[in-house]
Amino acid sequence: MARAGLTTERLIQAGAELADEVGFDQVTISALARRFGVTVASLYSHVKSSHDLKTGIALLALEELADRAAHALAGRAGRDALVAFADAYRDYARRHPGRFAAAGFRLDPEAAARSAGARHAQMTRAILRGYDLAEPDQTHAVRMLGSVFHGYVSLEMNGGFSHTAVDTEESWAWIVDSLDAMLRNRATP
């Protein structure tokens, strides 16, 4: 019989909270069992393995991030949409560093198919419609934006910019402005 109150959803939520506290790489079923004061064996009726737990956290993070980005994009277009989208990602990473790391967890094809990954791509393409990019430029731009946003935020979170006097906010604005200018320049004539 499952211990009262333990559900897969509750364990994944607690795993996400633990990831934010100690880092996504440190999340294990053992650590989660300690958090709930139960034996590891009692969690296996809810999650099959640490990989299963991490997949659940990744799916949760992708969904939360998509929800925040969608809310930020509502009613915006062009540069305003690009800034809102970028800031939503950066803000989520700052508030939920472990979950942000989980969003980059490699999902198997079945989990990827049910993830919010498609929503992220759709939102990015919606932003890019404001720049009138044709294929394959639009696909290149989707990949570029994801790489730049993820890369900058990851470096910033890991202290990669602490050795310089230039403010990270100033750099972030410069990067987003540069992306906007580049995308406008690449528009289909």
Textual characterization of the structure:
This protein has one domain: Tetracycline Repressor, domain 2. The protein has 189 residues and is mostly helical.
Which overall shape is indicated by the principal axes computed on the Cα atoms?
Answer: elongated
Report helical residue fraction: over 70%
Examine the secondary-structure arrangement and name the CATH architecture: Orthogonal Bundle
Could you tell me the CATH topology label. Answer: Tetracycline Repressor, domain 2
CATH C-level category: Mainly Alpha
CA distance, first residue to last residue: 65 Å
Give the mean pLDDT.
93
User: For this structure, what is the CATH homologous superfamily?
Assistant: Tetracycline Repressor, domain 2
Regarding quaternary structure, what we see is single chain
What proportion strand?
A: under 5%
| SS summary, helix count | 10
Largest sheet entry: none
Low-confidence stretches: none
What is the rounded Rg?
19 Å
Helical/strand content category: mainly alpha
Please count the beta strands (DSSP E, at least 2 residues each): 0
H/E element string?
HHHHHHHHHH
Number of folding domains? 1
